[in-house]
Amino acid sequence: MDIPPSSTPIVCDMATAPDTAQQRLDEYQRLFGRHLVGREKTAEGIRFRLRAEPGVEEQVRDLAAREKACCAFFAFDITTDGEQVIWDCAVSDNDTARVILEEYYLLPETAVQSTAELEKRLADKGLHFISDPATPLRYTVD
Q1: CA–CA separation, 70 vs 74, rounded Å?
Q2: Rg of the Cα trace of the chain?
Q3: What is the pLDDT of residues 39-62, one digit of tens each?
Q4: pLDDT, tens digit, for every residue of 57-109?
Q5: CB-based contacts of 76: which residues, under 8 Å, 6+ apart?
Q6: Distance CA 132, CA 116 (A)
Q7: Which residues lie below 8 Å from residue 37, measured CB to CB, with a gap of 6+?
Q8: CB atoms < 10 A from the CB of 6, how many?
Q9: Which site among 51, 61, 73, 106 is 20 to 30 Å from 31 CA-CA?
């Protein structure tokens, strides 16, 4: 996995994303609700294991590409192992990035929240959100 350097800005900008933050959160909820069989922490980050049913690998690859497009400090590796799609996730060597990775690990539970609730959770951990009516979601970390 090609983990970005620690100098990579810890910024997420969905300004050019084809979906909104709520749509993405809904997609995670559906993906994990239907296909997640397990998750664990790894030496590099975290791993989600999903049922390798038709279309799941393609959905995970598409979702990971959209996440990487808005959050350059993330790294993803998607493979198939027998009947499972393995989705490995890691972040830059940065304390704030690791906090965000921990929140990513919790997504199977927290994806049921609204984006406002999730934003508050992240803001409480030091993330500052910038709202712009022209963009669905943009946040930066001080």
Answers
A1: 9
A2: 14
A3: 999 999 999 999 999 999 999 999
A4: 999 999 999 999 988 899 999 999 999 999 999 999 999 889 989 999 999 99
A5: 1, 64, 67, 68, 87, 88, 89
A6: 15
A7: 49, 50, 51, 84
A8: 13
A9: 73
Structure tokens at 93: 């060597």
Alpha helices in the chain (DSSP H): 21-35, 56-70, 95-105, 107-110, 115-124
Q: How far apart are CA 25 and CA 40, in angstroms?
A: 20
Question: Where do the structural domains in the chain lie, given as residue ranges?
Answer: 11-141
pTM of the model: 0.86
Distances, alpha carbon 23 to alpha carbons 12, 18, 26, in Å: 16, 10, 5
